[in-house]
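Section 3.1: Structural characterization of target chains.
Under the original work plan, the team committed to producing a structural model for every single-chain target entering the pipeline before any wet-lab resources were allocated. The record below documents one such target. The sequence was received from the expression subgroup and is listed exactly as submitted; it comprises 235 residues.
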Amino acid sequence: MDLQTLQSRVFADIAQFIGNRRGYAFLARADNMVAVTNGLDHQDHELLQESIANRYPVTISIGIGTGEEPIAALEDATNQIQTVGSAQDQSRREVLAGITRKRTTSRDVQIAHFDVNNATSRYTDQLNAFDSFIVIQRAYATLMQHLREQYSGLSFFVGGDNIISIVPEITTDDYQEIIQYVASTAEVNLKVGVGCGSDAAEAGISAKYALETCRHREIAIHINDDGVNLSSKEV
């Protein structure tokens, strides 16, 4: 359990560091993390490496990538690290590779916040803790794979019944297809709020408010564009 504790603490510090600079960090495989760092420069990434090295008996390598689609940016970032050497290479320490880019528009980042409909009443209050966990994870796995394969988006489970997805600009009809696919494949109904911004924090809060609109109006999809409603669709 010492390793589990160490990994959770390292992630917490990375998430806090990036979050304080208006970015988002997500846990992938515990020893692998994915972050949206629009607005952070090269020096910010260096400072993160220094902070972790000072606090823990481990160091971190960072690859920075950009792209029109989330998966393209992640593949670029991953390649920056992989070209230096294997993850098991003893000489690969504290790699910082890739080029940061400045914020350019209010649409640099698009975030979709998915939420399971009536999760508390249907699952949390009806099933035991593990079976309800299975249901939510089944929905997450289905969404994660479908959004990646069909729309080049990246999805991350962030606790409870919430999934945050980094997405390209896709339409209301696309989101309708995604929700219907998860419903038919995983037998779980979702709703989604979508927002955009110059950084992850701006896009994320816009997506949060869009999701609250879904809950208030009892609709499945709500998309914000700089805080202005683009489109909604009934459940």
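The chain is about 45% helix and 20% strand.
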